[in-house]
Design brief:
The structure holds two protein chains of two kinds.
Chain A lengths: L4 E7 L4 H16 L4 E7 L3 H4 L5 E4 L11 E3 L2 H4 L3 H12 L2
Parallel strand pairs in A: 1-2, 1-3, 3-4
Chain B lengths: L13 E5 L4 H14 L7 H11 L3 E5 L2 E4 L12 E15 L2 E15 L3 H15 L2 H9 L3 H6 L3
Parallel strand pairs in B: 1-4, 3-5
Antiparallel strand pairs in B: 2-3, 4-5
The chains are: A alpha/beta, B alpha/beta.
Chain lengths: 95, 153
């Protein structure tokens, strides 16, 4: 079994919104047979937390020039564009 | 873990077809209701307005329809509550994912919550409404607080 991919989920305060997003992404990835582990933080903490992650997903703007793939999206709150974001996430985590 | 929003939204904290011009104005209006009801401390309104400037909470569902979920830190809250406003005409809130972008907000949920689990459950419940734009629009058009409440999970 391959090691689960690490996804860092960020929002303004790293508490509630990022939990909702993390749970939604986890469920969707499970449906696609991709094992992930998630960790949460504030968007401003991403640069110091990004070292070992495969992907960052955030609901608020992120610092520029991050060394890992990052997606800023509201899709896991509003449902708008969710399928498209899931395709992107799947593609990044399948690399 | 989804919460029932009706646990937190009292009929007297629902205002419909409000005429306001700015995000700050609707936040103040709703925060005053929560202050009167004893749900929040006097600094709550100012704290929410300040956070909204820095980290806006507008959530666009389409080009012409958005919802906002302004909130602040739990220290300003006495008893958990949510106040709800529908707006006669939309007002501009910054978009959560891009504070430089403004979205036309029709419905505002002002969240005064304390523990993390309640915050998560409430956001999931609001998400359920957002992910069904027709339901969100019906909420905007609700004619009585009872009608609005009936549309919420």
């Amino acid at each position: 079994m391959t090691e689960p991919k690490k996804v860092l989920v960020a929002c303004g305060t790293g508490v509630a919104t990022s939990t909702v997003v993390a749970q939604a992404v986890q469920a969707a990835m499970k449906d696609r047979g991709i094992a992930i582990v998630t960790r949460q933080c504030k968007a401003s903490e991403v640069p110091s937390q990004i070292g070992d992650v495969d992907l960052v997903i955030s609901t608020t703007p992120l610092p520029k020039d991050l060394p890992r793939p990052a997606i800023v999206t509201l899709a896991f709150l509003t449902g708008i564009g969710k399928d498209r974001e899931l395709e992107k996430i799947t593609e990044i985590l399948s690399r | 873990m989804t919460q029932h929003l009706s646990e937190f939204i009292r009929l007297e904290n629902i205002v419909l077809s409000q005429r306001v011009e700015t995000a700050a104005e609707v936040i103040t209006l709703l925060a005053d209701k929560l202050l009167t009801g004893g749900f929040v401390r006097p600094g709550f309104a100012q704290a929410v307005r300040a956070r909204e400037q820095d980290m806006p909470t507008g959530l666009p569902l389409s080009d012409d329809f958005a919802v906002a979920v302004p909130h602040t830190d739990p220290e300003h809250v006495v008893h958990p509550a949510i106040a709800l406003a529908t707006l006669a005409h939309p007002v501009a809130f910054g978009s959560m994912d891009d504070p430089d972008m403004f979205v036309p907000v029709h419905v505002v949920f002002l969240l005064a919550l304390q523990d993390k689990d309640a915050q998560i459950g409430v956001l999931q419940a609001i998400g359920e409404v957002l992910q069904d734009e027709a339901r969100a629009r019906l909420l905007w058009q609700a004619e009585t607080p009872q009608q609005a409440l009936a549309l919420l999970p």
